[in-house]
Amino acid sequence: MRSRRQELSNGIAVLVAEVRYLPYVVVNLALPVGVNREPPQLGGLASLTAELLRRGAGGKSTQEIAEEIDSRGAQLSLSQGRDAMLVELRVLKKDLEWGFELLGLVLRRPHLDPEEFVKFQRQAIGEARSREEEPRERVHDLFTQTLMGEHPYGRPVEGTTASLARITADDVRAFHSQQYGPAGAALALAGDVGEEEALELTRRYFLDWTSDVPPMPLDPVRDPEGPLLAVEHHPVDQAKIVLGYPSVKRNDPDYYPVLVMNYIFGGSFRSRLTQNIRAASGLAYSVGSGFSARKERGAFRIGLQTQNEQANLALQEILKEVERIRTYPVSEAELHEARQAMIGGYPLRIDTLPEIAGQMVETEIYGLPEDRLADFRQGVESVTARDVQRVANRLFPPARLVIALAADLERANLKPVAELLPQGPVENVSLGPTHQEAAVKELITARPEVLNGRPTAVLVDAVPTEGLFEARLPNGLKVLMLENHKAPVATVQVWYGVGSRNERPGITGMSHFLEHMMFRGSPNFPDGKFDEVLALNGGINNAFTTEDFTAFYENMASHAVAVALELEADRMKTLVFSQEAFLRERDVIIEERRLRTEDSPGGIMFEQLHATAFAAHPYRWPVIGWMSDLERLSAGDMIDYYRTFYSANNATLVIAGDIEPRRLLPRIQELFGGIPVGPDIPEVRTVEPAQLGEKRYEVRKKSGYASILIGYHVPNLRSDDHYALDLLSRILAGGMSARLPRELVHERPLAMSAWSHYDPVMHDPGLFYVGAEFTPETSSAEVEAAVLEQLEQLKAAAPAAEELAKALHQWEAEYVMKQDDVEELANLVGAYETVDSWRHLHMDIQKMREVTPADIQRVACQYLVARNRTVGTLVPAEE
User: Fold this and answer.
1) For 654-712, how does the pLDDT look when each residue is reduced to its tens digit (9 = 90+)?
2) Which CATH number fits domain 228-350+360-425: 3.30.450.40, 1.10.1650.10, 3.30.830.10, 3.30.565.10?
3) Beta-strand pair 766-774/651-657
4) What's the predicted TM-score (pTM) here?
5) Which CATH architecture has domain 4-134+144-206?
6) 801, 24, 135, 147: which is closest to 408 by C-alpha?
7) Among 858, 733, 717, which residue's Cα sits nearest to residue 790?
């Protein structure tokens, strides 16, 4: 991807990537305002200044700016990074000049009003307190502070409760006037815009911006005098662990060797850490490594969560892997796979407009080569096994090790660092599953009868319909293909019509568990081979399970689509795994439940909401399942479930991107046509009875914030009321100018956040959600009353036509922007088709435009009523 660059006389570099596909433009702006420019005692000053820019500027109030943004369906974010202040504007092409005018106002003429400052400072302090008390957030700050010491990179970008309290409105105004200026700024545009238009707009709104902001040197990052251990006690079930070392600068010659080393060590699902800590040991649901490379050295960090009692073992296993990559050269197979995966997957880094604009800004900030693809390819291809070992020794000496841990220290009983480090030579043995191991284990085959069958030549009914190619094989497999040649990438997805609603008491969580096991082996791709083959072709993959469906996807350069089809067809034929693999993966899922629910206040609030709101329907149990069921699920249960639901007649194949449907169709027929028809899918007959009165529940759990969560029973997409409900949700919380954020967060303010959510794409009627998060000192009754007051106002009076139009414009702009991402587009098609029909996508536009203010009031009066709601309250408490 190449861009055009021009530098204006005031020092702004303008970069343009013309992509004439959608009427949509992304504008990214980076100002060279790093955290090193704020006084150490005023940590968070740069971040506070950036966030306040949109709160009144150029004679326009906070709400007037918010109304302008929301009414156009635009998205504006201003955030502070460690090296620069970053702005991103996503806007439809017709509003591009308005967007430039707005950027000029907020960057050059912000009001920085003292009253607005006080409101936002209070909110920022509340959010900082929440981060400081939340173990998963706190452990990262603890690690960074211990690793970086007094360096500016060691401070939380958002500040601490103490430092934010010291900042005054005068500090913010002085920071803006003294540190903001055009010199060294990078302005990148990607999308439906040409170079001349971009330059004309930039000159019009920014050329007369001048400011004498002197450069400010950034001190080097010093090595910690380690090994160091930083711990904090938190009464939680899982230990939160981050460990690591200083990394490299972005312009360091060793950047690419470190990038390759990280991929092999812990930066991919095929990495050594994943194979050892997750696949072989079942110690954690998720473990991995990554590194930041900035103007100065960042951090190489390794992170995981595990049971408190397993913290010592997990740390010892990780440190063994650290020592192994330092002691022995990586294998040629590992090195080859890393190169192939990274180079082949590069197109996935720049296949959307935000990614293109972001890469142009990064190139300018760090002075990187203009031809990033050529530089990346050359840099990765030149890395040798010797290079990997050399940079591992450069980065990972024990004396630079920092370990941070937030855990129940009594249960963790953490050993001294000296005892955690390897006590002698480590063996060069991978603990992950190998194909040879899989061959000698006693394997369980879900459908052995298909192994000797032959694919048959079949005819299909295939027609292009409304821009989408649709086909159905005789075995019932639906095929939907979307041709999109904007970038040389594609996504292959298989959607199965099975989710937690298809389970029963005693086997809850089976759908999600089976999703995991689908990666543990099939006839031609034993355990581990699936990921290896895809990585060698530059692809990435994953899956997700909801109440209504399970979806598997592979994203890759378009030339590798046939590989993904072969992989998916093989595991649709039958599933092959060992009892040992089943038990290991069960341990991983139990850890996932602890991570996402037991140790997550938000997770347990949603789980309890569904368990309380639904009396009869299967939506009452969690997708991940109840812990008691997970502990008792058997391989036999899983085989029965697979045979029932994982069949061609219960699946939809969706392919989107740089493809030619009619050329792909014969290969699809060859791979999938011989898969036999499965049994009839059991019907879920239970219908949730009408709720006859308000329900309430309370969760008392350690948390850095309090919250309320309200759910109302509402229809799904089969009812035309879902159009009005969607727009109602946007009227309530679609942007800063919407009713809930405006009243609860900005005007009063009572809450740190206030929101609503409605997803009609469900098989059965679900819930309309309304929620708010606030500081523990705030009265939950007061917040609840304020939320319900906004709902009552909608019931008492229909919204103005302008307010409804604003919500509609947001929906329309979002609809356009989603088409920039082929994976997102395929997700929409797959979800709609699995629960009903993809044709809703084409009906939605007209139906949305037919919604009236009276419709909004009607659905509010019909569904958002006391007898139909369930209210949950999170009360922070020591456990």
Assistant:
1) 999 999 999 999 999 999 999 999 999 999 999 999 999 999 999 999 898 999 999 99
2) 3.30.830.10
3) unpaired
4) 0.93
5) 2-Layer Sandwich (3.30)
6) 135
7) 733
